[in-house]
Amino acid sequence: MIEMTHIDGEDKGKVVLYALSTCGWCAKTKELLAELGVEHSYVYVDLLEPDEIEEALTEVERYNPSGSFPTLVINDSRVIVGFREQEIREALS
After folding, report:
1. Strand 15-19, strand 71-74: pairing
2. Number of independent structural domains in the chain
3. 53-59-61 Cα angle (round to 5)
4. How far apart are CA 50 and CA 23, in angstroms?
5. CATH at residue 21
6. pLDDT at 29
7. What is the pLDDT of residues 3-24, one digit of tens each?
């Protein structure tokens, strides 16, 4: 299992962000989650060990077949790909 960084906040269900450390849109998504004060977990896929990267990409592609970043997964069902501020705000309000 991939180790994620957990951020405490208001419980809005299971919120997981798959991101890249070099991605500006990923950073904006992470900042928005912090601003909203939502409890979430995130992982910088590009900073994982090689075998973990493979596992993380498989997880991402399960929710987002294009495998792009950021991929935000809410309650294992709602998936928001890219920095879509309004959609993220609505999903977590």
Report:
1. antiparallel
2. 1
3. 100
4. 19
5. 3.40.30.10
6. 98
7. 999 999 999 999 999 999 999 9
